[in-house]
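Quiz preparation item.
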């Protein structure tokens, strides 16, 4: 009889570490793969792999079966829904259990990040979105929105730069002058006795 040893590297194991086999017989080992890994190569004893089972050739001397594994990796894609900005890169390859980062860039100064979703419990810090730990194929989607125009109590500051969006108003005690700079731009001016001018835009 002969000894057939089975040795597994990090990432998996054999159901048996050793089998005693008679001359001319074969040996079969079952391979278990750890989470996040996949079989790379199994060799030795003139055998062959089928699924997660490795069967040796006819045994005529002591020999060893060896298995190696590698970490799973996933191609994470990223895209923007709608307009108003970009996300970079558009894809990133990440190993099992790792996180991926994507940079969010609003278009010009009139847009800001609205939402970013996908790939676990991710989070946004500044302009960078970091995914959760990657354990499967997934994708990231970002949206951007127009900034609300700032309107402060000063007649020298344009407050109605987005009249067409109909979402800008002045603070209490001030109105948006219809003559503050043309049909699409107004300024916050104090209310006055005798009737306020008609605001050129409102929230």
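Solution:
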């Amino acid at each position: 009889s002969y000894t057939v040893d089975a040795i597994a590297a990090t990432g998996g194991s054999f159901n048996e570490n050793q089998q005693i086999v008679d001359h001319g017989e074969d040996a079969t080992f079952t391979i278990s793969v750890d989470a996040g890994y996949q079989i790379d190569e199994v060799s030795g004893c003139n055998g062959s792999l089928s699924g997660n089972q490795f069967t040796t050739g006819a045994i005529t001397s002591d020999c060893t079966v060896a298995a190696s594994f590698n970490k799973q990796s996933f191609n994470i894609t990223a895209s923007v829904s709608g307009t108003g900005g970009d996300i970079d890169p558009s894809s990133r390859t990440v190993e099992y259990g790792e996180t991926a980062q994507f940079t969010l860039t609003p278009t010009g100064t009139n847009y800001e990040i609205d939402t970013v979703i996908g790939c676990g419990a991710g989070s946004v810090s500044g302009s960078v979105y970091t995914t959760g730990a990657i354990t499967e194929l997934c994708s990231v989607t970002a949206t951007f929105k127009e900034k609300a125009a700032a309107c402060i109590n000063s007649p020298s500051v344009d407050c109605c730069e987005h009249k067409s969006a109909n979402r800008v108003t002045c603070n209490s005690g001030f109105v948006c002058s219809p003559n503050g700079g043309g049909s699409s731009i107004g300024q916050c001016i104090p209310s006055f006795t005798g009737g306020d001018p008609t605001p050129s835009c409102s929230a």
